[in-house]
Write a structure and sequence with these properties.
Blueprint: H1 12-15, H2 25-45, H3 54-67, E1 70-76, E2 84-88, H4 95-102, E3 106-110, H5 119-125, E4 129-131, H6 139-151, E5 155-158, H7 178-184, E6 188-197, H8 214-222, E7 227-233, H9 245-256, H10 263-268
Parallel strand pairs: 1-7, 2-5, 2-6, 3-4, 3-5
Antiparallel strand pairs: 6-7
Helix pairs in contact: 2-3, 2-5, 3-4, 6-7
Length: 269
């Protein structure tokens, strides 16, 4: 693994807590089946790509989150139309459909997702932009592809932390992708993602971190009652407000990331 590859110290054993009451096994199985059906529907429709109405994509994305038994709350400002770099903190696989419910966008994802069962084909056929995180030399080409999509008036969704975190701690935004927004002259839209229980307490149950398997993470979500996914849309950052990608990345990080908690406090709590 490359020394520059982003990573988080969060692990399922140290950071993920099964807070909240457990759903019954039949209900959890029903939720899992519903998520699977919706994802398979995406496989069938993914060849349409950009031909699918944005409203349908937005609703389908929200349906996936709700089918898993998770309420969706989207708050904040209106999302601009046209070319847009959509950036958010990264906690769970649920972040992907949750951002899709905010605004349909081409997603930037790690190349390993190509090999995931079901989700891999959906991603590849649905226009996901893949980044090979093991090859630093491939990064400029990825930034160029993102720039081209943005210049074409479309949105690209990115998780600039480069890895998933548990939600109580977080990383820093990597600045490379922000160069694409500067080159294309498009705004950056920060989105702050949180997961809570219906009573308001924060929950790490949806976190997909460390050596957690996708199936284990999905099952943990569908078998937990009362989860709420919150996407807070912050004010868009105009491309001329910051002189370089470092300053732009820091501004977006301040807007998108919750209050920082020391990592050691998370791991020992």
């Amino acid at each position: 693994m490359s020394v520059w590859l982003p990573g988080a110290p969060c692990t399922p054993r140290a950071c993920v807590e099964r807070t909240g009451s457990a759903a019954s096994v039949p209900l959890a199985v029903l939720r899992l089946a519903a998520v699977t059906v919706l994802v398979l529907a995406g496989v069938v429709l993914s060849p349409l790509g950009g031909g699918m109405p944005a409203g349908l994509v937005r609703r389908w994305s929200g349906w996936i989150v709700r089918a898993a038994g998770v309420q969706v709350r989207i708050t904040g400002t209106a999302v601009p139309t046209g070319g847009l770099l959509l950036v958010a903190n990264h906690i769970s696989w649920l972040d992907i459909p949750l951002l899709g419910a905010v605004r349909p966008a081409r997603m930037l994802a790690k190349a390993e997702i190509r090999r995931w069962p079901v989700a891999g084909p959906v991603a590849a056929r649905g226009g996901v932009l893949f980044i090979d995180r093991d090859r630093l030399r491939a990064l400029p080409g990825t930034v160029t592809r993102i720039t081209d999509v943005l210049r074409d008036g479309r949105a690209v969704a990115v998780f600039p932390e480069g890895s998933t975190w548990c939600g109580r701690a977080q990383g820093h935004f990597r600045r490379a992708v922000f160069q694409a927004a500067l080159d294309a002259g498009v705004p950056v839209q920060p989105v702050r993602i949180r997961y809570r229980l219906a009573g308001g307490a924060a929950s790490t149950a949806p976190a997909f971190v460390g050596d957690d398997s996708l199936l284990a993470s999905v099952w943990r979500v569908v078998s937990t009652r009362g989860l709420v996914a919150e996407a807070e849309v912050r004010d868009a950052i105009a491309p001329d407000r910051h002189p370089d990608r470092r300053a732009l990345a820091r501004a977006a990080e301040r807007d998108a990331l919750p209050a920082r908690v020391p990592v050691h406090a998370v791991l020992v709590s």
